[in-house]
Amino acid sequence: MTFYGAEPFKTNDTFIAPLVVPSSKASSLLLDSDLFAMSSSSTMKAVVGRAVREAGVALKKHGGVEFFTRHRPIMTFYGAEPFKTNDTFIAPTASVIGNVTHWDESSVWYGAVVRADSNHAITVGFSSNIQDGAVVTTLSEKATLDTGFPPTTHVGHYVSVGAGSVLQSCRIDDLVVIGDKCTILEGSLVESHVMLEPGTVVPAYARIPSGQKWGGNPAQFIADLTVDEKGGIQATAEKIHLQAAEHMLEFLPIGNTYVHLEELEKKGYEAQQG
């Protein structure tokens, strides 16, 4: 990805995976004779299948065929299409699936997943952000909460969800900062003007009162927020929105895989979508 005219440099023998699927060690595993006895198992079938696919790709590439990949950041699931506004930024490597509603100026960053594929809705509020690698999801389709409320996930306005955090069937009110790698479990409520320290774990059905800072596993009260800390919550969300707007300028709504295809064709390669 080129950003502000700065294009990453790589050599001819540099490998960059299309997503985050690790390369299999199937070739070395197949050398172990003990594994042949497991040929009827699903594990062995998976290993052999991947080895065959990778071998085929390697042979095609050796023959001069280049591959390009297309990832769908937005995916309709069971007829439920995610809703986003014109100024919602969804990174090209993010995944927004199913019954998801994005308010204006919201953003979903690289590698993040917002997955509403179990008939329960997810809402991401105005100027809220789901940062890199975070996961926002819900309980399974037939699951219910002990509170009697539907197991939806609600992210309010001006909420910043830190990188690597996990939110599941919980409610986050307006003006909240969730630190990196936090976990907020089903049925829990985080009220407005709250800050969670990185790595905080909010247990199921817990309540974090308004105007406080919490941290730890399980989450414990740390201190009341100062006036400056409360004011900084909205400023943090607005700053991330402005950054998202800059990233959005680098992409077209139809995607940018055609750029990679054109580059390969200019070099005289035969290109095939992988």
Unreliable stretches, pLDDT < 50, 5 or more residues?
20-39
The arrangement of helices and strands along the chain is HHEEEEEEEEEEEEEEEEEEEEEEHHE
Number of helical segments with 4 or more residues = 4
Shape: globular
Task: State the end-to-end CA separation.
Answer: 18 Å
Average pLDDT works out at 82
What is the tally of beta strands? 23
Largest sheet data = 8 strands, mixed
**Estimated structural class:** alpha/beta
Percentage of residues in DSSP E strands: 15-25%
- Percentage of residues in helical conformation: 10-25%
Alpha carbon gyration radius? 22 Å
Oligomer: single chain
Strand order of the largest sheet: 3-6-9-12-15-18-21-22
Q: Which tags fit this structure?
A:
single chain, 4 helices, eight-stranded mixed β-sheet, alpha/beta, 274 residues, 23 strands
Give structural notes.
The protein is an alpha/beta fold and 274 residues long. It has four helices and 23 strands. It has helices spanning 26-29, 42-62, 227-248, 257-266, and strands at 65-68, 74-75, 89-90, 95-98, 100-102, 107-108, 113-116, 122-124, 129-130, 135-137, 153-155, 159-161, 166-168, 171-172, 176-178, 183-184, 189-190, 194-196, 201-202, 207-208, 212-215, 220-224, 270-273. The strands form four sheets. It has an eight-stranded mixed β-sheet with strand order 3-6-9-12-15-18-21-22. A hairpin with a 4-residue loop joins strand 21 (212-215) and strand 22. The protein is globular. The protein starts with 25 loop residues before the first helix and ends with a strand.
